[in-house]
User: Fold this.
Amino acid sequence: MQRRLGGPGYGVVERAKQTIERYAMAGPDDSLLVALSGGPDSTCLVDVLARLGPHFGWQLAVAHVDHGLSPASGEVAARVAHFAAEGGFEVHMVRAPDLAGPNLQARARAFRYGFFETIANQIGATKIVTGHTLDDRVETTVARLVHGAGTEGLAGLRPSEGSRIRPLIALRRAQTRSYCEDLELEFFDDPANHDVRFERVFIRSRIIQAIEERWGDGAVRAMATTSERLSEDAGALKLLADRLYSHLVVRGPGEEQSFDLPALLSMPKALRRRILERAVGRVRDRSGGIDAVLERLDGGEGPFTEESSYAVATGIEIRLKGDRLVVVRPQRSEDGAH
Assistant:
């Protein structure tokens, strides 16, 4: 697909270029696998990257997942294949298995990213590129606020996370649609994007739309700025907590980790929480046990004359005894069983 940098849609191309450069998303040594659903965001993304390709020196390939969730999904997959082939891209496609059941969107997303990562490994792509926009970032922040996320979660979608990059993160969804319309790029409107039974659609159509109608486009952009600042704060706190963790942790038998209680009590609660989260690791349902420990520490008690134990997750315990806080993992037998 040969398009010159200037011409129709140049404003969108230039904004994407600025975003890529600002966050150092990809360089000339990178090979990009672009997720193409067939919708306006990803269709815009592929065309924009094709125009920027000669400037950055990238190699591009395209990946598409046919989730089979609408009667038109097969037709969309065929159109995507044609669009990619016409543009001269290597295209990789898969039909998802039956995903019926609870939490459909989460399982579809897990399958989709699993496929992208598999293909990226097979072809040597260093970056997986998705068409997430500023709207997606704001919607993610609102969704996580509803479910009680912390600073890191409220940061929403970041411009870059590991090998995943989002060059359109500073653009509104309306801009990507206008881009496709101005350049006469064919795209598909997924009916699921209008089904308010899905949480993201409800947030988009009932909450974000109401905010924009009342306060205008600037309000939505201001919310995205808040997400960006939360991301910066979360990154700074994580860096500080990681350094404190490395300085304070004392390794015991097995996977036991011990910390000096007076040192923990001298810190703000936000740092205590992050140090405990680091010690426990990324396991499900850890927040309840960690919150219970933090509540106990908020009382400023200590040393603890009697041992207190708090169940965290998957057999992990946090114990308070004397002037120590100890994180204990279940012992494993030689065959791997608890």
Remarks:
- The CA atoms of residues 269 and 294 lie 7 Å apart.
- The mean pLDDT is 90.
